[in-house]
Amino acid sequence: MSEKLALAQNLDAQDELKHFRHRFFIPKREGKEVIYLCGNSLGLQPKAASEAIQKELDKWAQYGVEGHFVGEQPWWQFRKPIKPLLAGILGAKVSEIAIMNSLTTNLHLLLVSFYNPVGKRTKVLMEAGAFPSDQYALETHLHARGILPDENIIEVAPLAGEHTLRTESILQAIEQIGDELALVMFGGVNYYTGQVFEMQKITQKAHEVGAKVGFDLAHAVGNVKLELNAWQVDFATWCSYKYLNSGPGGVSGIFIHEKHHHADLPRFGGWWGQIENERFLMKKGFKPIADADGWQLSNEPILPMALHQASLQIFHEATMEKLVAKSNWLTHYLYEWLIELAGKHIEIITPKNLPHRAAQLSIFAKSRGKELHNFLLKNGIVTDWREPNVVRMAPVPLYNTFTEVYQTAQKVAEFYK
Ligand SMILES: *Cc1c(COP(=O)(O)O)cnc(C)c1O
To answer: What's domain 3-33+319-415's superfamily in CATH?
Structure first.
């Protein structure tokens, strides 16, 4: 047995989180469990999902509309026990979280509240190469508000010859735009490179120049340790179907820092944001709940939220501290072993070290990238391909193993042999 394989097996044997793997359905190919490294794209299904959904279906069958008010988790307040499960993942107070809509919808709603161009302070700073939906949201949002996107959306790009952004470049850009900067809207982790941005430093610098700061945490939530409240982030949103394993198109959420709960921010309202003791009076006049729930528009999508709850329960048991610690080692070894075994043929564009990388590595194939991806898939290793030449791999601490990481590095080497 190779030394690396022995080490991997040893690490698995000692892993105190190893039993969590059995709480998930691992997809199979030709009757064999695959090595699933795509949890950054669509997390795996918790086995508790169907029971959680079935429970609400049964309740609906039995009670009909009464389901809103009966049982241990009445639908009209279904979110209440779910929010504390998210609080630990986000480093947020329960009052700062609302569970609602989907990610891109929430981006628009948050821009309504936090993008407030005044005088010459009209500019938005974002990362170059952000996820397309974020680019489209900003472009169309500014356009709808009568602001020219081309002149007002400023992108920070990596220096020539580099793949990822230097924190100094981001901070410098913020300083340069200065009193023209209305908003910094950044990813927490870039979807393509896997780079983790230094959210606390970005927030601090943006506030120094008088701008608001929001993060799209699609690839960060459930992946890196977040402290949104302590970092003073103004707002954030995320999706729940990537690292949070809450199902395709699963329900999203928003974070609104408590300092904004009593500010009279512009917003798009709906009846589910109305203060609860007046909501069912069905009267004129919007009075928002004085916390993040005041941004809710519609009544809660119970089935996706039941699934979300079942999944978040697993995070609660495992704890982010332990997950992040294991994740760091899993990805560390994936990095080391890929470079040792196949370093001539690939370049890893994700930063090597903390705090700049988390679970995901983005492998730039010097040749035959698409073929590499297909070869891995044929051998039961599920990664994801991103044009023009990147294979993304994300070992996930809840269900991936060190042995899988070793086998993946070895298969990459075998492909190039
Ligand atoms: C996955 C992802 C999205 C997807 O948006 P939806 O509205 O959930 O379809 C948006 N932004 C980023 C950064 C993502 O990673």
So the answer is: Aspartate Aminotransferase, domain 1 (3.90.1150.10)
Alpha-carbon torsion (108, 113, 114, 119), positive or negative? positive
Domains in the chain: boundaries: 3-33+319-415, 54-317
d(CA 35, CA 26): 8
pLDDT of residue 53: 98
Does the structure show a pLDDT above 90 at 283? no
Fold for 54-317, please state it: Aspartate Aminotransferase; domain 2 (3.40.640)
Our answer on whether the CB atom of 219 is closer than 6 Å to any ligand 1 atom is yes
> Does 234 sit in the ligand 1 pocket, CB within 6 Å?
no
CA 182 to chain CA centroid, Å, is 24
CA of 250 to the centre of ligand 1 (A): 11
Q: Is 243 in the pocket of ligand 1 (CB under 6 A)?
A: no
- 139 has a pLDDT exceeding 80: yes
Residues 80-130 pLDDT 10s: 999 999 999 999 999 999 999 999 999 999 999 999 999 999 999 999 999
Specify the pTM: 0.97
Whether residue 1 is predicted with pLDDT greater than 80 in this model: the reply is no
81 CB-near residues (< 8 Å, 6+ apart):
73, 309
